[in-house]
């Protein structure tokens, strides 16, 4: 049967001459350029050469990337299969695909567009045999990889205390990010030799089981291209255009992978060797070296400069037109980042006008800072009409969220912790709270099960199952069922219950914050997180729990020196008190009731439970956004508060030892500033309870690196000026006494040891000749060397004030200049 005649489409196409078709295609291509500024248009229409696009914050880089791909396709320079587009998140890849589909009638899902790991996985799936993998190899996520390493360690009787599984995981992943297989890893000592041996055993296990972790995806795909010239040549010819987003976040291996695809000769080639064929495609790298903030993940900002040099890049286009922020905000960001020496350089501008000045507050304490932030948020919502979800509070580390969360909770303001858990919901905090509950009530089986083997102490699932069976049979709590077990299980559990009894005894007569510190150290939680490569933040959160306890005791009227536990301990087994199992008693009396008037520890645990359970924003609810600066990258808000701008906090202590670390901190501050559209608030506190310590901090250098004309100081910038001389803002300023004279309001929320500004006369008298005594009576004077338990050795620059108000300005070797109260600093003079 003859085929039915087609529609009139072929006839219509026949009428369209090649010239007319080309003209129509050109019109469609130029339509893509509508609405682009001159810089964006230049980037989209670049010739087929390597190029670097320096895309500032809010400059429309995603639009440029997708329009560049659409332009190449629409003008016939490349087919969809000839484009390789690399992003850093699956979300960004999906957004680019959606935008392309809206621009052109094509299915973008078939294109090679995705994350580094996603594209590497696709490459390995296609060439699994050449890569030496089974066809159905499985990918291990981070938790699966850790479980695999733990199995390996158990199989080979690895000492978990000396070589923790998580540290081995970081070691292995770090080697892979550097492109190092076990034979390539330098061996310095017996410890590193053992790690390399375990790395090799881990690789053998993965190969045997047919699995690959994330790091393996990148390294194996790189080696696939390196070792197979035919495949390398195929992909170099196929991908005529390679586009990379967020280029500043690439690590060493990812950059080497890109160079392998583009045909650049690899580092280490012998002189005189003929260079490999240059048949690879052109690279358009899009990024912002001023927003490189992931060095701790292996990101290497130097890849951008290396790219320019190694590829002979002639085209560098700067996208400096910002479509997000007003002028004062951008002026502050531009001047701040100009203090970085190693940058390619650009200057953001806007057509939105100057807008509101950046407001800066010096609060007397972190409590007052948090109260001011919440007061301003309520003002913005009530009088400014801003949705809460368009307001963000940013901080350098998660531990700082505690004070803000507490005030939001007390004020009944819904909030959401973005990219993480609220303070009292974090795992390390819940572990510590469980230990504290066991001090009050050892019959709390939920808390018992949470920490009985955390930190690990050799108590497995089988042992706990036997213990629970014995407790059910005797109608007793778990801790009383320990004597029913035998052998090693009984000994390990008895050691655990004995530790609870010991901590309970040591806690007698201690204040609430002291009990928290005792439990964090005595339980082994602190040592556990110290042993983890990335455990510092968890450790800081645990230290912050002591600050939260002290603040709670003062705010609830218990007083700073109130004893945390009731005078009489809860009734325990005699064996538990001695640290040994006793005869079981199914009829043992329950723990004694707390004394009349709930003791501070019980009240604090109730407070923690309530804060963890209430006021968290529900799905879709309008809520204030709380997050670290790292988590804020890529986001934007109408109003942004950046808190804790103090030396040692932001910039962080750990970053001040090297110029590179300080420059990354400055880039982090730059990212924070450029999240704000209309309003930006900056704040710092004279006194801050953080990580369990009272800190007398100097304001961040970043505040002094911003232009005065863009800032509006709500409190005096210079300590010698009267607070009454500076304009205040909002009811929060009046409530804190910020416009009522030089000393007004500065004692708010500080308890007995309030910080008071020193009059100029006293300051003049307290110069290098001045001396003061520590709490132990040892004289501290300017010019001497001292030791501090946290900051180490330092030199005293000057003494301010006298008696209980005396403070020392000290320059520490690794932590910079600190202003410490001698009444609490516990300094030790050095010879």
From TrEMBL:
Source organism, top-level taxon: Bacteria
EC class of the enzyme, as a word: isomerase
Domain UvrD-like helicase ATP-binding: 34-326
GO biological process: recombinational repair
GO CC list: cytosol; DNA helicase complex
Domain UvrD-like helicase C-terminal residues, every copy: 327-634
Coiled coil stretches, renumbered: none
Keyword set includes Ribonucleoprotein: no
Alphabetic keyword roster: ATP-binding, DNA-binding, Exonuclease, Helicase, Hydrolase, Isomerase, Nuclease, Nucleotide-binding
GO molecular function, one term: DNA binding
Positions bound to ATP: 55-62
Catalytic activity: ATP + H2O = ADP + phosphate + H(+); Couples ATP hydrolysis with the unwinding of duplex DNA by translocating in the 3'-5' direction
The EC number(s) this enzyme carries: 5.6.2.4
Family the UniProt entry places it in: Belongs to the helicase family. UvrD subfamily.
Name the record gives this protein: DNA 3'-5' helicase
Organism: Ottowia cancrivicina
Organism classification: Bacteria, Pseudomonadati, Pseudomonadota, Betaproteobacteria, Burkholderiales
